Amino acid sequence: MSDLLVTGGQVLRPDMTVERADVLVDQDAGTIEAVGDPGGGDDELDAAGGLVIPGLVNTHTHVAMTLLRGLADDKPLDAWLREDIWPVEAELTPEDIRVGAELGLIEMIKSGTTALSDMYFAVEEIAQAVEQAGVRARLGYTAVTVGKDDEGARADLERSLEVAQEFDGAADGRIRTTFQPHSLTTVGEQFLREFVPQANEAGLATHLHANETPDEVGPIVEEHGVRPLAYAEDLGLLAGETYVAHGVHVDDSEIELLVETDTGVAHCPASNMKLASGMAPVQDMLDAGVTVGIGTDGAASNNDLDMFDEMRDAAMLGKLAAEDASAVDAPTVVEMATANGADLLGFDSGRIEPGANADLAVLNLDVPHLTPAHDLVSHLAYAARGSDVRHTVADGQVLMRDREVTVFDEDRVREAAVDHADALVERAM
């Protein structure tokens, strides 16, 4: 057995207390063996002057969209998608997606993220990048029927089913999958009624965008006479393991429905603000018992994948939405980015205790913006940055040591990403 000892630091425990402790990791099993003073391991990771936290969980992103970072800004969602993003995405090659995914995974590793949920295309390329990166992921092929003929629409949804079944359990179980109809307004009802039962019968989890903007809610209410999530339930979309992205414009009846169906929400505050989509009633959802995680969305609508930024945004926006300074407080937002996110994706991560997945990040506390240390949980929510992460560990393996990513050649990936992004824009424009 090979052991890794994360030594000399303070540790964030599941109850949000902080104590001085070492963490012993069983690298063969990829789990935490002991927390406290367990003694030496075969390898050591120096956490002196640092805080050991669970690896962060990004519950909704489009990782390969790093190639589109800064390409189209300051537009509402519908115009942004139709006028800028979809035309460029039509020119993406599998090689582009692989490079964009590698770049995004490096960015996440360097900011302490060890698990993600991704929606995109050329999933085989993303899966290979995830396998090399060593992180955990929920992957899926995103199906859209709008603008497609009957044959093309069916092929897209069939591909989503095939990908979910093909890649589930890949990378020694670090990759799980989801069936992914893009949203309730970009996939036609006839196709949802045909393919959702197939996904449910196959026991697949489902991930989709829902209630992101008023323009997504209004047409469903007008056409079907019910709120979007009631429509989704009628289609069978809220059966089994389902989590929706955004959930900005949900009313009380829909929050109750989320609870009844055990449907989780991936909250994306930065993207919701940038696209002026609105303020999700996060505290109301949490109070009702909805599992709410945090996601960055893609780098084209954020424009980074730093979950520390996202935690701060979630806390601040949650207070504005509730008109209550005590809403979405620091411990809550840290839990959303760790344990809640892991629960949403179905990974036994998000907490530092024996038996849990050894997914960890070590923050350097010896920096001006984290001084003094009155409350380290507060610092995680309001002051820490991705650049404060010193080491990142996933599945017991060291992915970054002293800011040096060990699983990718960072310089090569960055150079390739620039070349691919430039060529992509030239083709699309």
TrEMBL record:
Where along the chain is Zn(2+) bound?
Answer: H60, H62, H209, D297
* Coiled coil regions, renumbered to chain: none
Which EC number(s) does UniProt give?
A: 3.5.4.28, 3.5.4.31
Record: residues binding substrate: E89, H182, E212, D297
Does the keyword section mention Zinc?
Answer: yes
What Gene3D superfamilies does this protein map onto?
Metal-dependent hydrolases, Urease, subunit C, domain 1
Q: Does the keyword Membrane apply?
A: no
**Catalysis: reaction(s):** S-methyl-5'-thioadenosine + H2O + H(+) = S-methyl-5'-thioinosine + NH4(+); S-adenosyl-L-homocysteine + H2O + H(+) = S-inosyl-L-homocysteine + NH4(+)
Q: Spell out the InterPro entries in the cross-references.
A: Amidohydro-rel, Deaminase_MtaD/DadD, Metal-dep_hydrolase_composite, Metal_Hydrolase, MTA/SAH_deaminase
What's the record's note on cofactor binding?
Binds 1 zinc ion per subunit.
Family matches, as CDD domains: ATZ_TRZ_like
Alphabetical keyword list: Hydrolase, Metal-binding, Zinc
PANTHER family of this UniProt entry?
AMIDOHYDROLASE-RELATED DOMAIN-CONTAINING PROTEIN, AMINOHYDROLASE SSNA-RELATED
Q: What does this protein do?
A: Catalyzes the deamination of 5-methylthioadenosine and S-adenosyl-L-homocysteine into 5-methylthioinosine and S-inosyl-L-homocysteine, respectively. Is also able to deaminate adenosine.
The name of this protein is: 5-methylthioadenosine/S-adenosylhomocysteine deaminase
